[in-house]
Amino acid sequence: MYEQRDAIDPTTWFDSVDLATLRARGGAKWSKYGPDVLAAWVADMDFPPAPPVRAAIDAVLERGQLGYPWLLEHDPVAHGFADWAARRYGWTIDPSLVISTIDVLQPLQALIQLHSEPGDGVVLQTPIYPPFHTAITGAGRVIVENRLTAPADGAAMDLEGLAAVTDARTRIVLLCNPHNPTGRVFTRTELQGLADLAVERNWLVISDEIHADLIYPGTTHIPFASLGPEVAARTVTLSASTKTFNIAGLRLAVAVFGSAELLARYQTIPRFLLGGANIMGVEASAAAWRDGEAWLEALVAYLHANRDRVVEAVAAMPGVHTVAPEATYLAWLDCRELLARTGEPSAFELFLRGGVALNDGADFGTVGEGFVRLNFATSRSVLDAVLERMAQACPS
Ligand SMILES: Cc1ncc(COP(=O)(O)O)c(C=O)c1O
């Protein structure tokens, strides 16, 4: 059982991450681009598991309980998330409307297929997380693109544009809040505007709120379904502990249904298509939501300082611009001026040649061409090495 007194000094904890450890660790982030490249791409953090998460996993092994979990009488995931949502976001949810899923993308895909027909439209507010695009097109649905306003203005929602671009075949909105890749935390006014349209036009809203815990001072996360009963009744919220606590490999997320009808419809999907929860994910998530707040506060403070370091370093890179993200450990860098000046075709390739792997903005929609996404969830020393290489890769 984790005790608060076991907690490690956060500065030592986060600062302790070094390149030798990361390269030895394995995993997609540090394997894909080989030993000479610094990895600042996929949305995994470089930090080791938080003490309560580590303790929960150790406890499962000590008990030797790696068989089927028994979750029917008291589901620690549903209750753990409901308690967390009440404490962190002031959002009251009924645990009986929360189910465990193997990740966020699986229910997202299932919901698209359940609530639309081939050829129907699904709204994306672009640029947006690449798997959203493939989840729609892979199911034979049509992306209805609604671009956020220019990042220099902070990438706001364009609700007039949304009203104009949708039609009778538009069925679903995939909302990402906080938003990946721009790091926006949408305001109540923006969310209410979207909700008004969804109610008026009878859309289902799939609200991916996986980044909700990683927000910086000055903003507040407003769960979309908390806007009112009429909004909740057409919303399925997807969330997880896996971004917040850096345990995506444990494969666990939650779907919160805004009404019993929405849940009942989901349960018409043949059960074995959906899979079941992994015991390590269940125990780690429950422990994170129960005991992880102190570690999370320290993490956000550390990421906040990293964010400011990124903004300062990018300001000195000629032709690269960014707006400080309000949430997430992802910075969205506009390199179009750099590309125009140098004649380089791709910022992603330019930085990769300079020894840093980022995400190519073009993967987030055509509006992302000329951008890259930088993951700054690492130690100061690794981040400084990344920023140094990027600065050297930018011709002046
Ligand atoms: C917005 C968003 N949704 C979903 C995911 C993936 O979550 P999962 O691995 O639980 O499917 C990510 C991962 O980066 C993400 O940024």
Describe this entry's structure for a reader:
This protein is an alpha/beta fold and 396 residues long. 41% of the residues lie in helices and 14% in strands. Helix 4 packs across helix 13 and helix 14 runs parallel beside helix 17 (380-393). It is built from 17 helices and 12 strands. The protein has helices at residues 10-15, 19-25, 28-31, 51-63, 76-89, 105-115, 130-137, 159-165, 188-201, 229-232, 260-266, 271-274, 279-291, 293-315, 336-342, 347-353, 380-393; strands at 38-39, 98-101, 121-126, 142-147, 170-176, 204-208, 235-239, 253-257, 330-334, 356-357, 359-360, 371-375. The chain is globular and about 60 Å long. The longest helix is centred in the C-terminal third of the chain and has 23 residues, at 293-315. Helix 9 (188-201) links the parallel strand 5 and strand 6. A 7-stranded mixed β-sheet has the order 2-8-7-6-5-3-4, sandwiched between helices. A 3-stranded antiparallel β-sheet has the order 9-12-11, covered by helices on one side. A two-stranded parallel sheet has the order 1-10. It folds into 2 domains: 4-49 and 293-393, Alpha-Beta Complex (Aspartate Aminotransferase, domain 1), CATH 3.90.1150; 63-291, Type I PLP-dependent aspartate aminotransferase-like (Major domain) (Aspartate Aminotransferase, domain 2, 3-Layer(aba) Sandwich). Pyridoxal-5'-phosphate binds at residues 43, 103-105, 129, 176, 180, 208, 210, 240, 242, 248, 253.
